């Protein structure tokens, strides 16, 4: 609760600092704000609190999720570099403030105890994302992406609200505890059948936000159109928060009704895996490839939601952390290279634009490679263990066919991730030394080292989660 | 007069004005009929004992949203006569869809059982502003305060996006 209050206040303070501060110092201030709220989050460790009469619950699980989300926010702010030297067209104070506010929404989504709180959190996060997607105002792609995201996102919110209404109608409570109580004290035959429709509709609303397959059509366009720094934010923070909410709704609240939703979610998972990976293999643009890869990773994480084992929550945490670190690094490298290539090549975000990066920028190339290897799930990186834990979960539940599909699809994944590595190391191209700021380097290296350390000692974090 | 008579009168009025929204040729008339429809629906809220909802419905829908609608319509060039672009196929498809929805609704309403309110727990003041305020500022205080964050984000965002920018558009 304290980080929620703190981040809201910090957001407002940040807007006022925009009048007086330079953009680089704004970045440092925002970093300090996020670190401060991370410390406030960690202070509640090993305590379980209910806030404002059961509206929110903070326990170790929600603290872990909050820390991952804020870590992603921290990385994004560190990579943002004060939004460049473009004095006229960027407004860093507003961007940072909106980022902080959207973290508030994400924190609500990981610790809600009332469906109203879930809705408010999701809306805060989404509205902030709609604005940031369209923040490159003179870019037609950005305009299109913002409008598309807004229209489709509002539609998905409608689904979620309708689902909440149906669940409320059938269980007479908006509180998770009340829903659980009423469900356990009513005979399954006497529950109205629209409860099941409500569960599925809520699922649809949330699956849209994490871009699972039949609802993924917005993802590539929005990820491509949005400025890269906000794409990074979208693919890390929104996805982690969305998965926390899905876990909370499907596995914790409606885990007893698994047989009613499992077939739908299965179908969605398998379609997500196949569509995400196969379409990613066709992409020429690295940014679009990463968008499809984010769809496919949603599929892997959904596998563990389907399995619904005791270890599911810790697996989602581990996977989100591994995915967050790797995606942030790959988008960051892509962003600086695209910035360099703008004006030099026609399509600065294509794989071709990365050609020959390793020659003059060995550190950027190495970080990019580690990130892509982790996304592909190669051993000694965090991504490998993420996938390993997910597959173990499935195996314990005797779900063999989805594992086969998932393993085949990660083989497809290796193809398109290595396309990036090949163009960085083996294709010839002229890229001069790209200067990056000090904070950028620190964030890049810490994320890289984090990926490797998690890949070598997965038990380091597994013992905490 | 009994309450149910008011209900029949209001429902008839609602249906009539809703039909006129679709049937009138002039878009401005359509919008005005829509405003009227919202007022009728607000009347239904009063019958359902939800006075606050009635006030909000009039202020937000009939007031804010419909005025926005009117502005948008005024900005269009209405002099141009747009030819009817619907082919027979789309008309047929529309009829089939609407007809099947009608069948489903009739089938559903045939089997529906209306719940009767429990006389012992019925509170006629439930929908009053006073009660709503009490619930909003006690049980639902946290979401209520957090909605302000939501509106603040929307406000900051619209100001940021609405600022005029010079310079070339790019792709």
Assess the beta-strand content of chain B as a share of residues. Answer: under 5%
The CATH topology label of the domain at 1-80 in chain B is Four Helix Bundle (Hemerythrin (Met), subunit A)
Numbering strands along the chain, what is their spatial order in the largest sheet of chain A? 1-2
Q: Which range does the strand content of chain A fall in?
A: under 5%
| Count of domains of chain A | 1
Question: Kindly state the mean pLDDT of chain A as a whole number?
Answer: 90
Helix content of chain B: over 70%
One letter per element, helices H and strands E, the order of chain A comes to HHEEHHHHHHHHHHHHHHHHH
Q: What is the helix tally of chain B?
A: 6
Sketch the major β-sheet of chain A: 2 strands, antiparallel
Brief overview:
The complex is a heterodimer of chains A (465) and B (171). Chain A is an all-alpha fold and 465 residues long.
Feature tags:
A: 465 residues, mainly alpha, two-stranded antiparallel ribbon, 19 helices, B: 171 residues
Give structural notes.
Chain A: The chain crosses the membrane at residues 28-45, 65-83, 95-128, 149-170, 190-208, 229-249, 261-282, 289-310, 316-338, 364-386, 398-418, 438-460. The complex is a heterodimer of chains A (465) and B (171). Chain A contains 19 helices and two strands. Chain A is an all-alpha fold and 465 residues long. A two-stranded antiparallel ribbon of chain A has the order 1-2. In chain A, strand 1 and strand 2 (56-58) form a beta hairpin. Chain B starts with a helix and ends in a 9-residue tail after the last helix. Chain B has six helices and no strands. Chain B is an all-alpha fold and 171 residues long. Chain B is extended and about 70 Å long. Chain A binds chain B through residues 4, 8, 11-12, 15, 51-53, 55-56, 88-89, 91, 94, 97-98, 101-102, 104-105, 108, 114, 116-117, 120-121, 123-124, 127-128, 130-131, 134-135, 137-141, and chain B through 139-143, 146-147, 149-150, 152-154, 156-158, 160-161, 165, 167-171.
């Amino acid at each position: 609760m304290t980080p929620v209050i703190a981040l809201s206040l910090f957001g407002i303070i940040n807007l006022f600092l925009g009048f007086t501060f330079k953009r680089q110092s704004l970045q440092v201030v925002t970093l300090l704000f996020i670190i401060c709220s991370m410390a406030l989050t960690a202070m509640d460790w090993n305590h379980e609190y209910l806030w404002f009469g059961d509206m929110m619950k903070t326990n170790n699980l929600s603290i872990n999720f909050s820390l991952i989300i804020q870590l992603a926010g921290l990385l994004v702010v560190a990579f943002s570099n004060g939004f460049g030297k473009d004095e006229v067209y960027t407004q860093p104070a507003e961007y940072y403030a909106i980022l902080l506010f959207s973290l508030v929404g994400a924190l609500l989504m990981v610790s809600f105890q009332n469906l109203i709180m879930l809705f408010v959190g999701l809306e805060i996060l989404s509205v902030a994302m709609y604005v940031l997607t369209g923040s490159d105002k003179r870019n037609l792609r950005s305009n299109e992406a913002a409008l598309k995201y807004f229209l489709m996102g509002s539609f998905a919110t409608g689904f979620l609200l309708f689902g909440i209404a149906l669940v409320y109608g059938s269980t007479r409570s908006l509180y998770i505890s009340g829903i659980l109580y009423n469900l356990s004290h009513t005979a399954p035959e006497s529950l109205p059948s629209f409860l099941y429709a409500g569960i599925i509709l809520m699922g649809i609303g949330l699956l849209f936000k994490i871009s699972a397959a039949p609802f993924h059509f917005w993802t590539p366009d929005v990820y491509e159109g949005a400025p890269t720094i906000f794409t990074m934010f979208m693919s890390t923070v929104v996805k982690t928060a969305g998965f926390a909410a899905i876990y909370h709704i499907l596995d914790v609240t409606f885990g007893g009704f698994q047989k009613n939703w499992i077939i739908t979610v299965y179908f969605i998972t398998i379609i997500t895996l196949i569509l995400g990976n196969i379409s990613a293999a066709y992409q020429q643009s690295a940014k679009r490839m990463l968008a499809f890869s984010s769809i496919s990773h949603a599929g892997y994480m959904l596998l563990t939601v389907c399995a619904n084992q005791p270890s599911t929550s810790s697996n989602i945490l581990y996977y989100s952390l591994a995915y967050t670190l790797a995606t942030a690094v790959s988008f960051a490298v892509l962003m600086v290279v695209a910035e360099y290539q703008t004006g030099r090549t026609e399509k600065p975000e294509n794989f071709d634009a990365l050609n020959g990066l390793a020659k003059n920028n060995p550190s950027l190339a190495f970080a990019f490679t580690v990130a892509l290897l982790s996304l592909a799930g190669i051993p000694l990186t965090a991504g490998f263990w993420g996938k390993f834990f997910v597959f173990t979960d499935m195996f314990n539940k005797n779900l063999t066919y989805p594992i086969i599909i998932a393993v085949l699809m990660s083989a497809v994944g290796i193809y398109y991730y290595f396309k990036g590595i090949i163009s960085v190391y083996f294709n010839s191209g002229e890229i001069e030394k790209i200067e990056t700021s000090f904070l950028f380097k620190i964030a890049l290296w810490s994320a890289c080292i984090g990926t490797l350390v998690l890949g070598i000692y997965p038990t380091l974090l597994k013992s905490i989660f | 007069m009994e309450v149910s008579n008011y209900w029949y009168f209001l429902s008839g009025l609602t249906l009539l004005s809703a039909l006129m929204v679709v049937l009138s040729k002039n878009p401005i008339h359509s919008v005005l009929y829509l405003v009227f429809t919202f007022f009728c629906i607000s009347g239904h809220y009063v019958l359902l004992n939800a006075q606050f909802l009635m006030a909000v419905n009039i202020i937000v829908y009939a007031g804010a949203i419909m005025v926005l609608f009117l502005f948008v319509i005024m900005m269009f060039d209405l002099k141009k006569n747009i030819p009817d672009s619907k082919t027979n196929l789309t008309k047929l498809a529309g009829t089939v869809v609407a007809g099947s929805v009608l069948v489903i609704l009739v089938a559903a309403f045939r089997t529906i059982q209306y719940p009767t309110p429990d006389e012992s727990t019925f509170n006629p003041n439930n929908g009053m502003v006073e009660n709503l305020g009490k619930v909003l500022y006690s049980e639902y205080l946290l979401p209520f305060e957090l909605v302000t964050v939501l509106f603040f984000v929307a406000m900051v965002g619209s100001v940021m996006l609405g600022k005029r920018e010079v310079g070339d558009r790019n792709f």
